[in-house]
Every structure is written in structure tokens, then in C-alpha cells.
Design goal:
single chain, alpha/beta, eight-stranded mixed beta sheet, six-stranded mixed beta sheet, binds flavin-adenine dinucleotide
Length: 419
């Protein structure tokens, strides 16, 4: 249905906005991991939904971010038939390594926690999910940013999207529920009145230069190097691409980091005795990430439910963000499916309280990891602290002894989500 609404431009000219209207049961904002998983799960149960995405398909399918998928998320993907790509191209990991003052500490967390991680880049996950959703008849409106959410406390809320065709055309989608899976910079979180939710946040005063290099990984495991010049990390991604991280001030800019400076600093911080220099290759991405964490409580207002980065962000230290996003969507899908099968909103009303303990437990682990791998967290001047460096060494030694300390780490690292 199309309606034409008159409006006045700034110079007083009469103009018209065409409003197209449609309806569905669930409108999902965002075609990231959270939105796509929710869409796929609802689709499996025959529940009508539309995904609206601000960016183009090309853009979302090439956005390289996460790469580390938890043991139980892999199981969840397999159980639901979403894992073909991961099973063909993903690589399991069971050991990680810390390096500190010339020593290497190998942690066989997979053996201790009876679980593994899979390395499978987020852009591949997103490509697979989009392909699957569309091939099963699902509708994703790319390049349709949601610009307004109306009637969140009514029985039929409305999502207004702008259209890629014309600035004078809007699309209104009326629905039963809105799933805000539109990431940290979307509109869902800010559509919740300030007095209806509380935001908890923490700035760590640390930055990471996130680097993608076109080189095969020289180490087949994640390496965390705790160096007096700051943290450095190496995370395998594919046979051609490796992700590296370098600690830097949070207000630093990528332009301060020439390719030569990046490789010199990586070699200095990552190497231990006997190591060859890293193989150099083109750096295809350099960006500074500010280490911060945010959680919104509750993750719901009226008919709007938040999932993934829209509700909480976590530092990339423990590689948990995408995993939490998928776990949220699993819980939200179960609650929505329960409603449509039983006309009972009990699970929807419990969604926030069910998800928050897992989210906070994961935040606690990330906070612990941040303190382990950075030596500047407790210093106002970002100074290297000799005392806390000794504490780091003690922690690493405890991790190597296969006692309860190591078990706790391994279980947290592998993840506790149970599908
Ligand atoms: C460098 C880096 C490395 C990371 N490494 C890891 C890792 O190893 N493991 C891990 O688990 N996590 C990691 N993360 C975190 C992970 O990438 C995120 O937590 C994950 O993308 C969250 O998924 P999401 O679907 O909630 O949000 P997003 O992936 O951000 O998706 C949200 C979508 O909503 C769209 N959108 C925004 N606004 C609107 C609007 N108004 N209307 C419609 N659509 C909108 C966006 O375009 C986007 O496509 C990393 C992040 C970064 C930056």
C-alpha cells in the first residue's frame, strides 16, 4: 500500500513523501550475526519476519571483525543446520599461548574444559547466514536504515525505514514485535526512554590498533604477548589472512602507524628467543579500537527486544561479542516462538533476566583478561607498573598448573552458553 503525505521544504515549497506500508509478525533491525540468527530461527518455525539493514549486502558481507567461535555456539549452529561453511572452512583450536618476559606459557584449555574454539571469520558467517535465509524465502531489505520506531508500548508497533530509491519514499512496517539487532550504533537502544533502562559502562583507558594482514599465520594458535611496550596479539583467521593487535593509547589514530612501525612493534612485542621475524605482507586494515564495555538493563521496552551489540558491547579481549549476540538471539527466538505457539508472553517477559547473568559473567571474564594482558589498567598515567607485572607472572604460572584456576579459565575461555 502506498500513501502520499504532503510536507513543506525549508524554502516553503510543497512536496510529497510517499509512504509504503507493509506488515509482518517480527521486524528485525540489522543483518549482523544477531539479526540473521534470529531471522533463521523464526523462519524455521514459519514465523513471518522481515530483516531491515542499513548497509548494502556487499558491505555487510565483507565487514571483517570477529573470528573466534565458541564450542557451544558451533554445536548450536550444527544443531540448526547453519554450519556447512564452518564445517568446510573453519579450523578448531584447543591451545592458546601467553608470552611474557621471554617465556612462553601454553594453555591447553581445550583438554581442560573438554571443548574447542573454531576460527571462522565473521564475514563468512554473515555470508552463509544471508545466503541461507534468502534461499529459504526470507526477506532482507538492504540499504533500508530504520529511522524511527513508533508505538513501542502498543500492540502493533511500527518501524519506519528510509528507502534507497528516493529520499521522498519511506517504508512503514507494522508488526507484533521489533527485534533491535542493529549493533552499537543503531537506533534501537536510543529509542528506549532514558528513565526506562539503565546503562552500565566502563572505559579502560586502553586502545588496540586492530590490523588485518595478508599473511598466513606463523603460529597455529592465538598468541597473547604481554610486553613492557604494551600488549600484542596474533589471531589466525584464514590461510591467507592474520589479525594482529597492538596496544596503543585510546585516542591514537591509525595514521600514526606506518606499515614499517606496525611490523617493527609486532616483532618486538611478539617474539621470544629463537623466533624468526614475522613474514611481512600488505596490511589491509588498520583501525584503533577503544577498550570499553557497556550493558543496558533491561534489554527490552514494550514490544522492542534488544539482542547483541545493540544491548551490550564487550571488549574484543576474550573474543566474545559475536558469541553473545548469537546466544541472545537463540533465547529471543525461543521466547518469540513460545509466544506464537502458545499465545503466552512469559518467556518474552523473562528474556532480559534470563540473558543478563550470562552477559555479566562474560563481562567479568573479559575484565579479568584485560587486567591479565595489559599492565596499565590501574594506572592513571598509563605507566608500566613493575608490581602488577609480577602479579601477571604469578597468574600465568597458576594458569599453567592444571588446578582449579586453570579449569576456571578454560571453562570461561571456551564459553558457557548452552544451546
Ligand atoms: C576488530 C574486532 C574484532 C572482534 N573479534 C571478535 C571475536 O573474535 N569474537 C567475537 O565473538 N566477537 C568479536 N568482535 C565483536 C563482534 O564483531 C560483534 O560483537 C558482533 O558483530 C555483534 O553482532 P550484532 O549482530 O549484534 O551487531 P553487528 O554485527 O554490528 O550488526 C548490526 C547490524 O545492524 C545494522 N544497522 C545499524 N543501524 C541500523 C539501522 N538504523 N537500521 C537497520 N540496520 C542497522 C548494521 O549495519 C549492522 O549490519 C570483534 C569486533 C571487532 C570490531
Amino acid at each position: 500500500m502506498i500513501a502520499s503525505l504532503p510536507f513543506h521544504t525549508e524554502d516553503g515549497e510543497h512536496n510529497h513523501i510517499d509512504v509504503k506500508r507493509t506488515s509482518t509478525k517480527v521486524t528485525i533491525l540489522g543483518a549482523g550475526p544477531a539479526g540473521l540468527v534470529l531471522g533463521l530461527l523464526l523462519q524455521k518455525e514459519g514465523i513471518d519476519c522481515i530483516i531491515v539493514e542499513r548497509q548494502s549486502r556487499d558491505y555487510v558481507e565483507s565487514r571483517a571483525r570477529a573470528g573466534f567461535i565458541e564450542h557451544h555456539i558451533v554445536k548450536f549452529m550444527r544443531k540448526n543446520g547453519f554450519s556447512d561453511g564452518l564445517d568446510n572452512k573453519g579450523v578448531p583450536h584447543t591451545i592458546c599461548e601467553f608470552r611474557h618476559n621471554g617465556h612462553s606459557y601454553e594453555i591447553p584449555y581445550g583438554e581442560v574444559a573438554s571443548g574447542s574454539h573454531w576460527v571462522y571469520p565473521q564475514q563468512f558467517v554473515v555470508q552463509d547466514f544471508i545466503q541461507l535465509f534468502i534461499s529459504r524465502g526470507g526477506q532482507i531489505l538492504f540499504s533500508h536504515p530504520a529511522v524511527e520506531l513508533k508505538g513501542l508500548e502498543s500492540s502493533r508497533p511500527v518501524v519506519t525505514c528510509s528507502s534507497p530509491i528516493s529520499t521522498n519514499t519511506l517504508l512503514e512496517i507494522e508488526c507484533d514485535y521489533i527485534a533491535g539487532c542493529d549493533g552499537f550504533h543503531g537506533i534501537s537502544r536510543s529509542s528506549i526512554p532514558q528513565n526506562k533502562a539503565k546503562i552500565f559502562s566502563k572505559q579502560y583507558g586502553i586502545g588496540w590498533l586492530a590490523i588485518l594482514a595478508e599473511v598466513p599465520s606463523t603460529m597455529e594458535r592465538i598468541v597473547y604477548a604481554l610486553h613492557e611496550s604494551g600488549f600484542a596479539g596474533q589471531m589466525p583467521r584464514t590461510s591467507e589472512i592474520t589479525r594482529f593487535y597492538l596496544e596503543c593509547p585510546p585516542n591514537d589514530t591509525a595514521s600514526n602507524w606506518s606499515d614499517d612501525r606496525v611490523w617493527e612493534e609486532l616483532n618486538k612485542r611478539l617474539s621470544i628467543e629463537g623466533d624468526e621475524n614475522l613474514v611481512r605482507g600488505p596490511l589491509i586494515e588498520k583501525r584503533v579500537l577503544n577498550m570499553r564495555s557497556v550493558v543496558m538493563e533491561p534489554m527490552q521496552f514494550g514490544k522492542l527486544f534488544l539482542a547483541g551489540d545493540a544491548a551490550h558491547i564487550i571488549t574484543p579481549v576474550g573474543a566474545k561479542g559475536m558469541n553473545l549476540a548469537i546466544a541472545d538471539s537463540d533465547a529471543l527466538a525461543k521466547a518469540i516462538i513460545h509466544y506464537y505457539h502458545n499465545r503466552d508472553e512469559t518467556l518474552l517477559n523473562q528474556y532480559s533476566t534470563m540473558r543478563l547473568p550470562h552477559i555479566w559473567k562474560t563481562q567479568e571474564f573479559s575484565d579479568w583478561m584485560i587486567r591479565l594482558i595489559h599492565n596499565t589498567v590501574d594506572s592513571n598515567e598509563n605507566k608500566y607498573l613493575a608490581f602488577s607485572d609480577r602479579l601477571r607472572q604469578a597468574r600465568l604460572e597458576r594458569l599453567q598448573k592444571n588446578g582449579s584456576y586453570a579449569t576456571l579459565f578454560a571453562e570461561d575461555y571456551v564459553g558457557y552458553f548452552k544451546p
